[in-house]
Amino acid sequence: MLSTLTFSLLTFACTSSPFAKNDIDFTLELKDTLIYTNPVFEPVLADPSVVKVGNEFFAYGTEDNWGDEGGYHLVSVLKSTDLVHWELLGNSLDKKPDWKDRGGIWAPDVTQVGEQFYMYYSFSTWGDPNPGIGLAIADKPEGPFVDQGKVFDSDEIGVANSIDPFFMENDGKKYLIWGSFHGLYLNELTADGKKLIGDKIQLAGNHLEAAYVYEKGGYYYLFGSAGTCCEGVSSTYKVLVGRSEHLSGPYLDQEGNSLMDSDSGTLVIGANKGDIGYAGPGHNAEIITDKAGNDWLLYHGMAKKRPKLANGTNRRVLLLDKIIWSDGWPSIEGKQPSFSSGPSPVLE
C-alpha cells in the first residue's frame, strides 16, 4: 500500500499526464498501484540475469567500469522486492577467474540449483579468437561466487565466439545453451554442471546471441538478440523469438520460418522510433511472472539522449516491460521500450 504522500504525487502525475485517457478514472485505477517509469536501474546493468529467492530478486550484469557514475564493478549484483526499485549490493565476484590470461566477465547467467547458486559466465575480449564459458558457485545469491574454472572454450567445442551462456534444467537433466553470431547451441551437462557431455545440437543460425528459453503452454520459446549491441545510439540490437514443442528444436517463428535461417525470428522488442526512448534494447533476462499472472521482461537498452558514460562506456540501463501474449506469441506493447509511466508488477 502506498503512503498518502505517494498517493498525492501519483494523482498529480496521472492527472497531468498527456497519456491519461480519463483523468479521474485513471487516477482511481492507479491509486493503490505502484507505477514506474523506465529505466528501473542506471547507470549500467548490461546483459542482465535475474533470480528470485523468496520474496526478493537479485540481478547481475556484465563487468563494466561505470567511471564517475559508480566506478568499476566485477559482475555487479542488485537486489529488489518489486522489480522497480533496485539496490546495488556490490560485486558478486571477489576476484576475476584466472583460467584465461585476459578478458572481461560478460553476460552472467545465475540460477538457483538446489541450495546453491550457479553463475555461468563468458570470459572474453572483443574479437577474442578463443573465448570460453566458466562456472562460479555461491551459497548466497549476493555471493561471493567462487570460481569452479572453465566449462569449455571455443576451440574445444568447435564453435567460434562461444559466449552468452544460459543454464536450464529439463526432465531431470542439466543443459547449457550458448552462442554469439556463430549459431546457438544446446548441450547436456554433467550432474554437477561443470562439464559438457554428449553432442551439441544447433538450435538457431548465425544472426542471434544471448539465448534464453522459456516454457509456456506446451512450447519452448527461444529468445535471442540480433543486431549490434554496443554502438551507442546507433546500436541495432533487438529481441527475436521462435518456439518448438521440443527443447532440442526445431524452432520456428510466427511465420513458420526456421530460426536456422538468417532472416528469421518474430520481433519481441526493438528500438523506439524517433529521437527519444531507447536504442539497442536486448539481451533479456529471465521472465518473471507476477501475482496477477502477468509476465515481465527485464533487458538492457541505451537512452537515445544519453547513450554513453563520460568514459565512453555504453550506458546500458536496466529496463522493464510487461509481455503481451497474442495467439501464443510474446511481445512488448508496441514492440518497443516504454518511456512513460505505467503500472508496476503485482508482487504483494
Range of strand content: 35-45%
The helix/strand series, from N terminus to C terminus, equals: HHEEEEEEEEEEEHEEEEEEEEEEEEEE
Roughly what percent helix? Answer: under 10%
Derived from helix and strand composition plus strand pairing, the structural class reads: mainly beta
Mean pLDDT over the full residue set = 92
Number of DSSP strand runs:
25
Corresponding CATH architecture of the largest domain: 5 Propeller
Can you tell me the residue ranges where pLDDT is under 50 for at least 5 consecutive residues? 1-31
In angstroms, what separates the terminal alpha carbons?
9 Å
Number of helices: 3
How many structural domains can be distinguished in the coordinates? 2
Rg for CA atoms: 20 Å
Biggest sheet statistics: 5 strands, antiparallel
And the CATH topology of the largest domain? Answer: Tachylectin-2, Chain A
The best one-word shape is globular
At the fourth CATH level, what is the homologous superfamily of the largest domain? Glycosyl hydrolase domain, family 43
CATH class of the largest domain: Mainly Beta
Keywords: Glycosidase, Hydrolase, Signal
Signal peptide: 1-20
Family: Belongs to the glycosyl hydrolase 43 family.
Site (Important for catalytic activity, responsible for pKa modulation of the active site Glu and correct orientation of both the proton donor and substrate): 164
